[in-house]
Amino acid sequence: MNTSARRQVKAIVEQIIKEQIQSRSLQRQKPLVVANWKMNMSLEKALHFLNSVQSDPQDSTVVICPPYPLLYPVNIAMKKLQTGVQLGAQNVHWEDHGAHTGEVSVGMLQEVGCNFVLIGHSERRMAGESEEAIQHKVKQVLQSGMYPIVCVGENSEEFKQGLTSQIVKQQIEAALKNLPNISNIIIAYEPVWAIGTGQSATPYQAEGVHQTIRQSIHDLHGSIAHRIPILYGGSVHAENARSLAAYENIDGVLVGGASLEVKSFQSIIRSFNKELGSA
Ligand SMILES: O=C(CO)COP(=O)(O)O
């Protein structure tokens, strides 16, 4: 293909993506872009980050999940700077209070301004977090009115064996069964083999798994499934965010490494905005 033909194909693809995002944003809720800083960032870096990051709450909901000790100062800075960004935690305990050394309750997270909390991240599952603990946490967070972001996803062995659908269905069922009201639930599909590896699932692959997840939620809780945001996570960066945003069942992203730098995170936020001129 010569250069001019290649340029034409690229322009057509760009146009299709733009139309898909525009029609999708008319039908669905606002996209959600979530930063999981994991065990990274200092207070100084975090404050610098907040000074520079910008989000328009009309276009997307942007959430930052810092490590516990940064929650309070980050909340103060967010209020002062009016960044339009919301606060989330990376974990929580299911009890209100008590003898649980090193743990933090839902009430404590709310006191420091958290509206969101990650639950069942694969890095925590690998450290021994059980399905039962995840279910208790989801229930407790829902009761508080906060938004639990429940992480699911297969590991590389399971992926190679073609077990992805089976694994995510099992994880969704374990986390969401017997819940009276799931309207605040957010799901994040994070294939373990894509986390921190630079090897993201293709948007097409992710869309297929998101459809399976939506169907599983539907099987458990009925038509509310269509309103539950399903995020993709695993090597999301500035270059692949826009094509992920184009898919109907990809309602946002959960970003690790690329959320530590303002430039890459800002570019991911722009990819999920309705106005694509600046993307
Ligand atoms: O685990 C993740 C977010 O929770 C994804 O991490 P990376 O974006 O660094 O692959």
UniProtKB/TrEMBL annotation:
GO terms for biological process: gluconeogenesis; glyceraldehyde-3-phosphate biosynthetic process; glycerol catabolic process; glycolytic process. The active site is at H121 (electrophile), E190 (proton acceptor). Substrate binds at N36, W37, K38, G196, S235, G256, G257. It comes from the Bacteria. GO terms for molecular function: triose-phosphate isomerase activity. It is an enzyme of class 5 (isomerase). Belongs to the triosephosphate isomerase family. This is Triosephosphate isomerase. It comes from Pseudogracilibacillus auburnensis. The lineage of its organism: Bacteria, Bacillati, Bacillota, Bacilli, Bacillales. The gene is tpiA.
